[in-house]
Amino acid sequence: MFGGNDDRNTHHANNEKTMKNLLIVFSALFITGYVFTIAHAKQSPQIDEIDALLNKVSKNIQSAGEVTKMAQTMNAKMVEAKVEEKKALEKEVAKAESKIEAMATTMMFMGVDTSLVGMDTASIANMMRLNGIK
Q1: pLDDT tens readout for residues 21-63
Q2: pTM: predicted TM-score of the whole model, two decimal places
Q3: Which of 95, 96, 100 lies closest to 128 in space, CA to CA?
Q4: Are residues 34 and 64 in the same domain?
Q5: Is residue 23 part of a domain?
Q6: Selection from 33, 36, 53 nearest residue 45 by Cα
């Protein structure tokens, strides 16, 4: 049957030849595909590469932690500075209020109306200068 053409049927001989050719072509394509698939297959990364990537990620995490600590420290310093600035401003306001009270008392003893309604800043400054307050 496959070994030779004993039955002398030409149709059978052509089918056998066609089958052999198809088997050769299919085998050639299969082997070619197998070889190229192996050649282009992605190899798994080496252990050293994975360790290097893990070290890099670890360093990035560590540096991010350091930056966070620095930001927290700077924030605490800024809050501390703002608290001190607020205390200083409160002291300045208290001083200014005491000066204003002293001026108002002086002006009242001099017979000047302390409401100063309708007076502009220049007029008030002139009046204070004339009375020797400023």
Answers
A1: 999 999 999 988 888 776 666 666 677 888 888 999 999 999 9
A2: 0.37
A3: 100
A4: no
A5: yes
A6: 53
Q: Is residue 51 part of a domain?
A: no
**How far apart are the C-alpha atoms of 123 and 134, rounded to whole Å?**
13
Tokens 């990620």 sit on residue: 57
SS3 track for 64-131: HHHHHHHHHHHHHHHHHHHHHHHHHHHHHHHHHHHHHHHHHHHHHHHCCCCCCCCCCHHHHHHHHHHC
Asked whether residue 50 is assigned to any structural domain, the reply reads no
Structural domain containing residue 96: 56-130
- Cα–Cα dist 9/1, whole Å: 11
2 in Cβ contact with 16 (< 8 Å) = yes
Structural tokens at position 117: 């309604």
For the chain, how many structural domains are there in total?
Answer: 2
